[in-house]
């Protein structure tokens, strides 16, 4: 019985350590580097979502390029 309680404590401790490291890293990455978004509707046709309103495309929004002002003609810019 004592061994099983020690294993559970170690497991919970390791989980908490991983959680408290992974969450800030993930939030920072999504805020500063890139995130994934879904494009729905006809507003971006025919470049994105060519099938109409029935389907949706998934795009990667690159925050890094926008922060460094590396936006060029022809780039798609999302205002979130």
Automatic annotation (TrEMBL):
Protein's membrane topology: Single-pass membrane protein
Subcellular location: Membrane
Gene Ontology cellular component list: mitochondrial inner membrane peptidase complex
Record keywords: Hydrolase, Membrane, Protease, Transmembrane, Transmembrane helix
GO function terms (MF aspect): serine-type endopeptidase activity
Broad class of the protein's primary localization: membrane
GO biological-process terms attached to the record: protein processing involved in protein targeting to mitochondrion; signal peptide processing
Name assigned to this protein: Mitochondrial inner membrane protease subunit 2
Native source organism of the sequence: Colobus angolensis palliatus
């Amino acid at each position: 019985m004592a061994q099983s309680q020690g294993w559970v404590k170690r497991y919970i401790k390791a989980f908490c350590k991983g959680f408290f490291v992974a969450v800030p890293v993930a939030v920072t990455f999504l805020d500063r580097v890139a995130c994934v978004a879904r494009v729905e509707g006809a507003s971006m046709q025919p470049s994105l979502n060519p099938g109409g309103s029935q389907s949706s495309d998934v795009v990667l929004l690159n925050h890094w390029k926008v922060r460094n002002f590396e936006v060029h003609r022809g780039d798609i810019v999302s205002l979130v």
